[in-house]
Amino acid sequence: MVQVTQLKTFDDYLAYSDGTDNRYELTNGELVEVPPESDENVIMARAMDRALSDIVGFRRVRTHQLALEMPGQPKNRFPDITVLRPEHPEQLKGLGQSAIRFDMAPPMLVIEIVSPGADNQRRDYIDKRNQYEWRGIPEYWIVDPVLRQVTVLSLTDNGYEEVIFTEDETVVSPMFSEWSLTAAEMLSA
């Protein structure tokens, strides 16, 4: 990851452009480049995007490019998949940016596909989990090709409650009862 420049606020971050398609996380005032996704993760995300789009409509599902303003550090995340609330597409039109700000309700669901490596596991299972919980995101799914499991985290009054699905178990979502893919289907690229 390459540190690029120093910015003070999330507004500065949203206004910043280096003329590339690179994605950055704003961490302690510095832009840190987010590496590109592996092809396997992109294929898995596309399959889940299609399945979720069949449930909520394609305008409410975003892959890889939607920034979420977050508490703590970094100040933003780019989930592999984000399912927006019904009002979000219209709110995003007015922003000119693909970003969910603090003054907007949190998205309904975020999904992270774990990339290989202990550092990525820590980010998805601990760091992002904490930030998504603090942000009040009702559901967070962790799709882990290495462990061959899908973890569904549902927000309760006591924080996230988790259920792990493997192999031919149909992944059960409290928010999306129409979801019908098994863990194996979600993990196949």
UniProtKB/TrEMBL annotation:
CDD domains: DUF820-like. Residues 10-183 form the Putative restriction endonuclease domain. The keyword Nuclease applies. Keywords: Endonuclease, Hydrolase, Nuclease. The keyword Hydrolase applies. InterPro entries: Nuclease_put_TT1808, Restrct_endonuc-II-like, Uma2. It comes from the Bacteria. Gene3D superfamilies: tt1808, chain A. This is Uma2 family endonuclease.
